[in-house]
Structure formats: structure tokens, C-alpha cells
Amino acid sequence: MFWPKLQKIVSAVFLIAVIASLIIYWIYGDTFDLEEIKYYLKDFGIWAPIVFIILFVLGTIFIPSTPFMIVGGAFFGFKLGLLYSIIGGMLSAVIVFYIARKLGREKIEKILEYKYLKPLGKYNSKLESGGIWDLAFLRLLPIMPFNVLNILMGVSKINLKNYLIGTLVGLLPNNAITIYLGTLAAKLL
What we know:
With about 190 residues, this protein is an all-alpha fold. It is built from eight helices and no strands. Helix 1 runs antiparallel to helix 4, helix 3 packs across helix 4 (about 65-110) and helix 6 (about 130-140) packs parallel to helix 8 (about 160-189).
């Protein structure tokens, strides 16, 4: 009796936090100061990569990852910026995937049993035995926010291994381009 109530509360809080953070980012996102963030990271010395990854993970649970990737490229250069951004992006994706899986998967499976949603249920069943390329393709296209896709995959039947591979394959091209833009921005400043 306690677990279903807790699930509803945590789900509501998580959803509100994601929506609120997107609104805050939409309002204040243009005040992003690359130089200020670079100096902030520089203060951490050898711990800067770990601090960056932690900030990336926590920040991208709630807001788009592009500003973090640009900072990664500007501060660490292309190779290390890409590495740290991929690590942060993967950790963030797994956290959101796991939260969605624990809080909503059973409910979604019940909903997909309805007559008019049977095609979605069949597709969901196909994800159980594959889904790597479907996920990678969805990650490459800018049609869906990163965390929305994490949540959808979390409530789907895709297994964790396929989710990780599909996410990595889908993240690499976008991250590489954005990190490179960050390195160019650092050269111009």
C-alpha cells in the first residue's frame, strides 16, 4: 500500500522538476556565460573533470545538455571534452531511464493492453529483443528531447544493454559536433 503512493508522489515531483527546469532554462538560458563557467571549473584543478561530470549528470537530468557540451569542449578541448560529456550523458541517461523504469513501466504496460494501443504494445515487445538501432536513430534526430526519450525507453521493454549501446551510438555524433563548436568558441574568446 505504501509503495504505490510513494511512486505517485515521486513521479509527480520528478515530472514537476523536469517541467520547471525546462521553463527556467527557457527563460534564463540566454544568460549562459562560457567564460564564467570556465573560470569556475579552473578553480577545481585536477578535480575539474569529476566536477564537470557531476554537474553534467545532475544538470542534464533537468535541462538540455548542449550548454554542458559546449563548456566541455571549451574547457577540456575536443578529446577530453567529448570523453567527459559522453560519460556524463550516459550516466544522466541511465539515471532517468532507471527512475522511469521503476516508477512507470508497470502502468504503461497495462495501458498498452487497450484495444487501440495494441500496435504500440507490439512495438514495445519488439524493443525487448532489440531496439538498439531504433534508439540510436531517435537519438540522432532532433525530434525529441533527450530526457523524454530516456523516460520513454525507461517505461518500454528495451533491456539495459541495448539501451546503453543505442544511447552511446546515438550520442557520439551529436556530442562530437557540439564539443567541437565548444572548442571553436574557446578559440574565439
